[in-house]
Each structure stands twice: as C-alpha cells, then as structure tokens.
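Service request form, structural biology core

Requester: graduate student, group of Dr. S.
Request type: structure prediction, single chain
Budget code: on file
Notes: please return the result as structure tokens.

Sequence provided:
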Amino acid sequence: MADSRSKGFRERKSSKSNTKKITHTLSLRNNSLVNKIPLELGRLWRLQELSFLNNSISGEIPANISACSNLISFELPGNTLTGKILVELGSLSKLNALYIGRNNITGDLGLARFLPEDIYNSSAIQPISIGFRGSIGYVAPEYGIGNEVLTFGDVYSYGILLLEMFTRKRPTDSMFNDGLSLHSFVKMALPELVATVADPTLLQQREMGQASSSTNNTRNQSSHTSHKIHECLISIFNIGIACSQEAPRNRPTISHVVTQLHAIKNNLIGKDGDHGSRRARIAV
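Core staff response, request fulfilled:
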C-alpha cells in the first residue's frame, strides 16, 4: 500500500501556482474491502489523507496509525469497526478531520484526553470533526452539535455505562425509542421500583439466601443485607442519572462521583471490608 502506483494513492499538488506543495493521499473509499486495517499503514509516515469510507472493514483501529505523524484527515465511516477511540490518535498533532461514524465504536470514555489542548484551542486549524453515529447512546448530546470535547462529556458517558452495568440494558436496545432512553427508563423507576430495572442477577443471591434461611437470626441478617443492597442500587442509579443529564452544567464532577461510589461501597461492605468476600458476588 506504500507504493505510489497502487490504487487510490496519489500525490496531489497544491492549486496555488507559486507553490509545489504535495499532499500524500491514500483513498480506498467506496470499495468492497474486508478484514482489518493493515498494520503496515503505520509505516506511511508521509501520509496526509487516508480514507476507508464505505467498505466492509472490521476489527479495531490499529494503534500504530499514530506513527503516521503527518496525517491531516482520517475517514472511516461506513464500515464495521469495533473497539475504542484510540487515545494514541491524540499524538497526531496535524490531524484536523477525523470521521468514525457508521461503525460500532463505543469506547467514548476518555475523549477529553483524546485531543491535546493545543489542538482544539489552535486557531490555525479547524476543529476535529468526529462522527459519533456508531456510538449513539453513549456520547454526550452536546457533541452532536459540534461542541468541543470536554470532561463533562466523559462524565455523561460514564453515567450511561454505569446504568448499563446495573440494568444489563444497552442504551441502543430496541426498547429505547419514542422518547424513552436508558436514562429516563431508570429515572422513572426510582426509588420504589428499583428492583424492576436492576439486573436480576444482582438480586439472585439475596433471594437464594432468603429461601434457605432456617433461623430467625439468619432471616433478620438476610433482610438487613437485602435492604442494604436495595439502598446501594438506588444510590448507584442516582449517580448514573446525575452523570447522564442532558445539560453539561448539571452533571457532577468525576471526583464527586468517585467520592459517592466509595461511600456506597463502604455502606455495603464496611470500611474494613467485613464480609467483603461474601458480598462481592452481589456487586458484580
């Protein structure tokens, strides 16, 4: 693919008559390419424009694409790529257009780390353009209108992930339509109906314990544990709801979220981890 005579590779001269600027481009768009993006692309350090638009490429974006240090534009829409948005792409200081829409890329956490501050604050280049259609449900709504990538967006994604973990439902499930989202689904159930939205496996051990109870003390202990689990689930869901609010200014900071999660953990298993091994199976 490094051979300039291969299909799609061209050196494009600048339209300005007084310059001989050359753009190194590899365009493989609108074909029927399959399999993974070849690792050998990382050797094309002069490459400036790379497009795999509308193919059937699978797998993950290779990390060594960050070795293409002169890359300006990277197009990937219309494939079946998976995995996360690579933090390594943040090292591509010349990149000003990244399109990843219409894929199955869902790793949105850490997007604020993805772009170095000097990239999106620079007036010399255009903002990074990222297509998030493949990650819909996880990406903060403000990104859809072109807002810059900030930690508030990370908090939103974390909140959705938290709700997904404890409901066992993805934000892209078919049940979420006509205005119903994972966020609203959980919010409407709290606090009284928390058991109806929680992952049933989280409550399985509680029910098994109650069924096998043979003494009053055991029953009382099981009831106390059940109440604690119920309280913890409500608290965790409230954090997920707070993090995934539509307005960025209404979301908590991630440090506040961590403090709350530690408090929930201590309430469930105690600061010293008493009975931790037994209860750890509940908080999967």
